[in-house]
Amino acid sequence: MSSGKILVAQGGGPTAVINQSLVGVVLEARRFRHVTRVYGALHGVRGIVNEDFVDLTQETSHNLELVAATPSSALGSTRDKPDEQYCERIFEVLRAHEIEHFFYIGGNDSSDTVRIVSQRARAAGYPLRCIHIPKTIDNDLVGNDHTPGFPSAARFVAQAFAGANLDNASLPGVYVGVVMGRHAGFLTAASALGKKFADDGPHLIYLPERVFELERFLADVKAMYEKHGRCVIAVSEGIHDASGEPIASLLAKEVERDAHGNVQLSGTGALADLLCDEIKDKLGIKRVRGDTFGYLQRSFIGCVSDVDQREAREVGEKAVQFAMWGDRDGSVAIKRTGFYSADYELLPLEAVAGKTRTMEDEFIAASGTDVTDAFRMYLRPLLGSGMPDAFRLRPAPVAKILNR
Amino acid sequence: MSSGKILVAQGGGPTAVINQSLVGVVLEARRFRHVTRVYGALHGVRGIVNEDFVDLTQETSHNLELVAATPSSALGSTRDKPDEQYCERIFEVLRAHEIEHFFYIGGNDSSDTVRIVSQRARAAGYPLRCIHIPKTIDNDLVGNDHTPGFPSAARFVAQAFAGANLDNASLPGVYVGVVMGRHAGFLTAASALGKKFADDGPHLIYLPERVFELERFLADVKAMYEKHGRCVIAVSEGIHDASGEPIASLLAKEVERDAHGNVQLSGTGALADLLCDEIKDKLGIKRVRGDTFGYLQRSFIGCVSDVDQREAREVGEKAVQFAMWGDRDGSVAIKRTGFYSADYELLPLEAVAGKTRTMEDEFIAASGTDVTDAFRMYLRPLLGSGMPDAFRLRPAPVAKILNR
């Protein structure tokens, strides 16, 4: 006799559309007659081991739709990275509650958790269907054309740079915008989509896929500043030297590491300030400003791609369909099938778990400080409809009288 | 014989709607039969002394409308603060080009420039009509209910905090968001409009209208963190100690001052980082993150209040009408006439020029770390239509089995 119980949880950094996936799971699961309960775990895997569950079967469809359109993780999230022992506790709780389907929405760390729990259940002979649902603004999951959450964050970054470029054109100087992305430069590269006219910024883009050399950087900035009388620069927080040491951590007083051993890169303006100081000191440019986009780029309410919303909903729905109609665990992935359309497939957990995708070489210009048209074609449809546009006055100069 | 020549320029920091005012001037001026030319000066007063003019009479209405909807200053701006000699040069250029009407869109420094040029023209017996058109995200012009540009920036700040609060609820810790505003806390206070539920952030708001004491701040944060298990804090970049020394400049390695003698507060993450370090060190809280909203809050493309757009357009239109139908120089001001409606009046330049409005006491809660309902009523209609909203799952707890 089947219990008909399902559990869903959200892990890792929140996104603008992660609740779409949650609601996709809940509403789709409630359509299956044998499903008796849809539980949500509060704060990801931590909520599972603590048995902090809420019954989503008792939530209205109407409120679920409103929550779906709300950014960040409605169930709460966690940065815990379960080891084998932690996964054992997860499994014991799932078994105690007779959970038959486990859906975990998250990035590559989360997919690794799903992989271990899936293995553990199989070893114990307990019938548990485990599905990982992709989510990350970093766009760094392998096997996916792109990941839900990335398009909306990319839209924020593109809009931010479109505006920063206009601001910088109005009051010329050097502007450095630091964007999230530890290993993958996709989000930083999205800054290029804020560019419309040939002389618009960002004029330089620094990605973690290329080694960052300070001398080269200063020479690039100098050249652009001389050409345009100003310079807008997009920098990934993950830029590093040839040895792989993050530029951000080279200057941090006290390096903070999370449970995954990662250095804290976000939530500090240190990298932008360092780069601005170098430009002021070495190039003698007076007006140099740095912004660190920080949490705004993943949390800002009111900047979302409708394509991203739709797909985030669908990966949740498809996860349930794969679980109900298929016979294996896996990770839902987005495949591009047209310009633009997408379909979904279920990849083996081993193909995704713990792996990191970085920007393909074909997306990075030979200069190393720009993107290619292939990247623009890749990203543009994902940003969705209604992208704001910038317009200029056309020149009609007036003859000088006093300064002739 | 009248030349029928008009000059318009934009000064100070760009806003999301300053081009609405520009286009309001241009389109309204072109309706008057005796107007032969509408010139725009590039980069504010600097463009005037350099005679860098463009002829806006040769721009299509259609493109002007597109430019109106584009943020930042389409003519370019400047931080130059003209002294008497600089104003003399402005006046000489205006006279050489037979300019009869001078419209300058800007903040209180710009209004002071208009005041000096107006005096100079009168002293020389040259018939020049000088009108200042209000603009500033700081909302610090006296005699105005509010200033164009502020509502859109306030909307950005409110949306940013609504999102940051959701993010912080998902991954609890302390979040510090630093908002622009050297002397006036209006924009920082707008963070309160991102709050929906009683336990939402921002839990603490620090304004330049109140003396900032680090010990008191740490005690406030500790209390909120103990109450909510997290704490979202809005801080004005202009917070200062009892002697008036900005907290930001107390730690800056090298203090940068602009032509107005103002310390650089924006374009650096130093203040947020300092406050985060204090919270980590003194309170022992591990997850502490700081964001500095920087230029995003005034330049972000795609976050604008429709009320702000409309009013920014109207102050431009009214400036021309006051100039054409009235007989005195002045500064256009917004008056509130209903909940919500506005009208416009022309104040004497002396009433506005060089003065700074700060937040009225009735808008600041007795605690000094929150706003009042009077402020919420004041600001809410200005944010415009279509404000995004945040929704939550309603609790339906599940009984524990293993951890009973």
TrEMBL record, chains A, B:
GO terms for molecular function: 6-phosphofructokinase activity; diphosphate-fructose-6-phosphate 1-phosphotransferase activity; metal ion binding. InterPro entries: ATP_PFK, PFKA, Phosphofructokinase_dom, PKF_sf, PPi-PFK. Keywords: Cytoplasm, Glycolysis, Kinase, Magnesium, Metal-binding, Transferase. Mg(2+) binds at residue 108. It catalyses: beta-D-fructose 6-phosphate + diphosphate = beta-D-fructose 1,6-bisphosphate + phosphate + H(+). The record marks 109 as: Important for catalytic activity and substrate specificity. Pathway: Carbohydrate degradation; glycolysis; D-glyceraldehyde 3-phosphate and glycerone phosphate from D-glucose: step 3/4. It is found in: Cytoplasm. Transmembrane segments: none annotated. Diphosphate binds at residue 13. Non-allosteric. The keyword Transmembrane helix does not apply. Residues 5-322 form the Phosphofructokinase domain. GO terms for biological process: fructose 6-phosphate metabolic process. Belongs to the phosphofructokinase type A (PFKA) family. PPi-dependent PFK group II subfamily. Clade 'B2' sub-subfamily. Catalyzes the phosphorylation of D-fructose 6-phosphate, the first committing step of glycolysis. Uses inorganic phosphate (PPi) as phosphoryl donor instead of ATP like common ATP-dependent phosphofructokinases (ATP-PFKs), which renders the reaction reversible, and can thus function both in glycolysis and gluconeogenesis. Consistently, PPi-PFK can replace the enzymes of both the forward (ATP-PFK) and reverse (fructose-bisphosphatase (FBPase)) reactions. PANTHER family: ATP-DEPENDENT 6-PHOSPHOFRUCTOKINASE 1. Homodimer. This is Pyrophosphate--fructose 6-phosphate 1-phosphotransferase. The gene is pfp.
